[in-house]
Amino acid sequence: MGWFVEYYNGCGLKIKVIDKIVEHRGIQRIEIYQTESFGKMLVIDGKIQLTEFDEAFYHEMLVHVPMLSHPNPKNVLIIGGGDGGAAREVLKHNPDRVVIVEIDEKVIELCKNYLKIDGNALSDERVEIVIFDGKEFLKKAKDFDVIIVDSTDPSPVSMSLFDEEFFSLAKDRCDVFCCQSQSPTIQLNYFKEILKNSKVFENRRIYISYVPTYPLGLWSFLIAGELSLNFKKINRRYRKRKIKTIYYNPEIHISAFNLPNWLKEVVDDVLNERRGRNA
Ligand code: AG3
Predict the structure, then answer these.
(1) pLDDT tens across 246-267, in order?
(2) Are 55 and 45 in contact (CB under 8 A)?
(3) Does ligand 1 lie within 6 Å of residue 177's CB atom?
């Protein structure tokens, strides 16, 4: 059928598509394609959200790092994540309850019917789906063990998940918090904004992963709360919970927090700016 191209600043990623399986224009433009080399692909507002080929690289790192940082996560909130990939990974920890708060019900419907990467998580009886704005939900929410934010890039629809008020609400409602924090190479402004706006979390940390179909391949995550970065502890929990993964392992968990110098500098600059202001 041709090529799908996601354009970044002065470059882009071009993926051969065989067929457009479905498209819906509502509060967001949702497209699902069959690609030649990467299986099915979900695109929202022109931006690649996942391909079957590498979605686990992203979802496993987004989910298992916070879930294994918690000693016993039974009650988990996912904000966004309407494709069900994050919920599928959370269920591997045998929680009692998972709430998905997704603003766009069409994402859930189309992904359930056409993408099917959720491993039936979207129909699991422990999973409750709420169609609502994530920030508004948090204002009235009770506490969760872990909150995971699986959002799109900042956009008019998702913007409220990136501001100071959002992070402060999240902080009060969980032990461990984690969100995707964009490409530190080609989306440095978004990355810095997320880091700055989350200053309510004293101990926030950045970790990275390789996701080939995201902008320039290097992806970042922000985690905060009651964290453990002790390899033995994480490894023990991983084995005890019998988690099966294709990308994540406890070694990668620990090493993902080792940032290259240029990125360490960016992170330190933002963190020090804050200390400077409060000094
Ligand atoms: N959301 C984070 C990926 C955003 C990718 N951005 C882009 N291609 N410009 C992933 C949602 C999948 N559950």
Answers:
(1) 999 999 999 999 999 999 999 9
(2) no
(3) no
Angle 55-69/231-240 helices, nearest 10 degrees? 110
Domain with CATH 3.40.50.150 in the chain: 55-278
pLDDT given for residue 279 in this prediction: 43
3-state secondary structure of 230: coil
Within the chain, all domains assigned CATH 2.30.140.10 are found at 2-51
Ligand 1 centroid – CA 127 distance (Å) = 22
pLDDT tens digits along 167-184: 999 999 999 999 999 999
Contacts of the segment 227-231: beta carbons below 8 A, 24+ positions apart:
227/69, 227/176, 227/203, 228/69, 229/69, 229/254, 229/257
Q: Which CATH architecture has domain 55-278?
A: 3-Layer(aba) Sandwich (3.40)
State the pTM of this model.
Answer: 0.97
User: Looking at domain 2-51, what is its CATH homologous superfamily?
Assistant: Spermidine synthase, tetramerisation domain (2.30.140.10)
- From the candidates 54, 104, 118, 150, give the one annotated as an active-site residue: 150
